[in-house]
Design brief:
Shape: elongated
Strand content: under 5%
Order of helices and strands: HHHHHHHHHHH
Structural class: mainly alpha
Radius of gyration: 27 Å
Helix content: over 70%
Distance between the termini: 42 Å
């Protein structure tokens, strides 16, 4: 709903391609197989492939020596029990660490979802006023609600591209002007540029307060929501950029 509302406020761009009138064909592949067939951005298989080949080579050598000696080799069962117990503890510890990392990213995205909708709802309180209201003429004159919402929608898109390492300015053209999208993409941290833009767009609410305190309270709530977005963005950046421990 937030994206559709923003697109309706965005002026028509003649350079943008027309929307496709053909309905999308449903995928015949189950979701589980789609996730399996999709390329792995972390290249886990390539990382573990040398170790797998080494173990396969060592096992082949053992089997070859066993065939040449023609003797039945035995090993005490206690060795297998101890090895299995230690491996089980190590795997449980690493699984918990991996799930904690995954849950941290999920929590950050949930915070972005909640804060974005709250910011759009709070900013709309000043925009959708009666036409004869003094609130519109006195305080909305320098607060661009459509621009605020467009930058707010562009923030999750920019974060997604940064986390995936795949910048794509065409996704931002749907919500931002091309000059704004190019300026955002040229920055080292596009999401920080969007957060700064949102803060600057909301700044006139603080300076244009008429003494009643309504605009000041609204500005404080918007800044608090922007702080939540920045905290969640830092958490996502930490999860994506921090490499796993060397022991992994």
């Amino acid at each position: 709903g937030l994206a559709r509302m923003t697109l309706s406020l965005t002026p028509y761009d003649p350079d943008s391609p027309p929307p496709s009138s053909e309905p999308e064909q449903p995928s015949w592949m189950p979701p589980a197989l789609e996730a399996t067939a999709s390329p792995d951005p972390y290249r886990i298989a390539l990382r573990v492939l040398p170790l797998i080949l080494l173990h396969a080579l060592w096992s082949s050598v053992i089997v070859f020596i066993r065939q040449l000696s023609r003797r039945a080799w035995t090993a005490p069962p206690l060795l297998h029990m101890l090895t299995g117990s230690v491996l089980g503890l190590l795997l449980a510890f690493r699984t918990n660490q991996a799930y904690t990392r995954y849950w941290s990213a999920c929590t950050a995205w949930a915070t972005i979802h909640k804060a974005s909708h709250n910011l759009a709802r709070q900013a709309s309180h000043l925009y959708f006023q009666p036409p004869d209201s003094d609130v519109v003429s006195n305080r909305f004159a320098s607060f661009g609600y459509p621009s605020f919402v467009r930058h707010l929608v562009a923030l999750p898109i920019s974060l997604k591209q940064r986390l995936r390492g795949a910048p794509n300015p065409t996704e931002l053209w749907a919500v931002l002007a091309r000059s704004e999208a190019d300026m955002v993409m040229a920055a080292p941290s596009p999401h920080l540029v969007l957060l700064a833009s949102l803060s600057l767009i909301a700044m006139p609410l603080r300076s244009r307060d008429d003494g009643s305190g309504k605009s000041l309270v609204l500005w404080s709530e918007l800044e608090r929501g922007l702080g939540e977005l920045q905290s969640a963005a830092c958490q996502l950046d930490l999860v994506a950029r921090l490499p796993p421990p060397a022991s992994y």
